[in-house]
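R.M. (postdoc): so does anyone remember the format we settled on? I'll just put the structure tokens first.
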């Protein structure tokens, strides 16, 4: 079995957790995903560009971030092995992105073009359901994260991150984790040294 076949089996498990597809639906869907590889620190999508792809992460870590007027960036979300990636609002609405998507590590991905995504969802109701539920789940996660950022203390945000995703401390540079939590790097370092779970 080659790398792409193995990756498609991983994708199938993720998709089938949301909705079961018939053999015909899965074959049509799987045929539209293409293997790509990127080096570390590659910008996949820039602010002002329309996101053309939905990604499935086979291996690697990516981040979506916003770059403010003073060139200070704010990390919005991370994606890593086994998750979907891309600038979802730009992709689904086909409008210019306000965010960047970059690889933090060398990354192996499967990608699906918007043209294929749109055609597949229009053709197969089960795939439309997958797209709708996936988008709703992503929105739910973002709303939960928004509440955490707005109402929780620095220590509470740090504890939630470590409880939800303890592996990120080894995967992602701490400056990006601090940005993701809305903390300055010094506060993040103090919490890293003092908080025990």
């Amino acid at each position: 079995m080659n790398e792409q076949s193995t990756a498609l089996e991983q994708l199938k498990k993720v998709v089938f957790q949301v909705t079961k597809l018939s053999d015909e639906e899965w074959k049509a869907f799987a045929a539209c995903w293409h293997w790509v590889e990127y080096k570390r620190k590659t910008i996949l999508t820039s602010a002002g560009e329309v996101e053309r792809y939905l990604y499935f992460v086979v291996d690697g870590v990516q981040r979506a971030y916003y770059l403010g007027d003073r060139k200070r960036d704010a990390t919005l979300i991370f994606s890593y092995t086994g998750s979907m990636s891309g600038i979802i609002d730009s992709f689904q609405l086909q409008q210019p992105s306000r965010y960047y998507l970059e690889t933090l590590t060398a990354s192996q991905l499967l990608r699906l073009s918007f043209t294929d995504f749109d055609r597949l969802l229009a053709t197969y109701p089960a795939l439309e359901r997958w797209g709708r539920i996936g988008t709703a789940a992503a929105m739910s996660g973002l709303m939960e994260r928004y509440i955490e950022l707005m109402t929780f203390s620095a220590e509470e945000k740090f504890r939630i991150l470590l409880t939800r995703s303890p592996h990120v401390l080894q995967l992602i540079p701490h400056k990006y984790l601090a940005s993701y939590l809305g903390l300055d790097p010094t506060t993040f370092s103090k919490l890293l040294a003092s908080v025990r779970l």
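R.M.: ...and that's the designed sequence above, right after the tokens. Also worth knowing: The domain at 3-142 is CATH 2.60.120.10 (Jelly Rolls). The two ends are 41 Å apart (CA to CA).
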